[in-house]
Amino acid sequence: MTHPYFAGTGLPRVLAHRGLATPEGEESSVWENSAGAFAQAVTAGAEFIETDCQVTADGDVVLFHDDTLERLTGDQRPVSAVRTAELRALFAEHGGLMTVGEALDAFPDTRFNIDVKTDAAAEPIGALVAAHTQRLLITSFSDARRLRALDAIRRAGAAEPPATSGGRRSIVALRALSALHVVPGTALRGIDAVQIPVAQGSFRVLTPALLRAAHRHGVEVHVWTVNDPAQMRELRELGVDGIISDHADVALRTLAA
What we know:
Elements: E1 13-17, H1 35-44, E2 48-55, E3 61-63, H2 70-73, H3 84-91, H4 100-106, E4 111-116, H5 119-122, H6 125-129, E5 136-139, H7 143-155, E6 163-166, H8 168-179, E7 193-197, E8 199-200, E9 203-204, H9 208-216, E10 220-224, H10 229-238, E11 242-245, H11 248-256
């Protein structure tokens, strides 16, 4: 049975990667994973936003990708060592910081794909998202962390579990078993999607066999991070279910054509 997260939307789905920080043809000081980036993605027509969460020194679960501030600000401190108020001040002129709860409240019609980036976020995210599971997909590169987050959501009283995307271990098993034409049933148990690159270096991750195996088990295949329109069209023809893009505005136009 298809999870409500996917219901009523066309294929391939476009997931706005960390929102839309720089719409096509514009210069912008808006940072990824900010309120401004999410608003720009929604304005462009995105129904799905991919984002990431970390935990601040105050224990707040904020939307931030990297472990440290270095890439965005030049500051080498880890997010976990920074107070939430200081992060808000840093984001103030760059789109605005958001906690998980604030994003779900501010964008009530948007479906969120949340990557739990740190073990510290797995427990507190439960209470923050339990009321929103119909429009939520939880993922992590760590399957153990992902399962801890799902358990926290269940214990927080969610009426139903969120959708979930398998982590690295699940993806490796699916890729290997599909290549050997072995049914990957156990590898896909409890999983609604896998989110993968087309390739990792010279190794091809996305293959027709992987697609067929996933689809036989009702599991969607989403590909990241795709910014080239020609590649978007190729992936649509191949039959992928979702395209994660930094340029959701371009992806939406390309795939609507």
